[in-house]
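seq as requested:
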Amino acid sequence: MDILKISIAVSIIGIVSLFFLTRIFEEEITDITDLKIGQIEKISGMVTSVYVSRDSHVFIKVADRTGEITVVAFKNSNIDKAYDLEVGEEISVLGRVDEYEGDIEIIASEIETL
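struct tokens:
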């Protein structure tokens, strides 16, 4: 009977701990104008254009209330959702902020529709 009580107590403590840890590590949304090169950031905004290159890389323009940025989903990133995006959709993007030809962009690792 004691082992049952201990097991239940440890399970409850584990579940509560996981709940709080997910809250701590949940990515915070960053404004486009506050992005920093080299950082992993999460943005959300509206898709303003989508372009698929000949190499099957997807280039998405995303705008929030502070600005607009290009989000790149490379073919080998396996972000299939990028191919189905449409102008006007609200999305969130997690990825590494990079610079290409003087412009800041995000190399996507995750894209979610909101």
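The longest strand covers residues 40-52.
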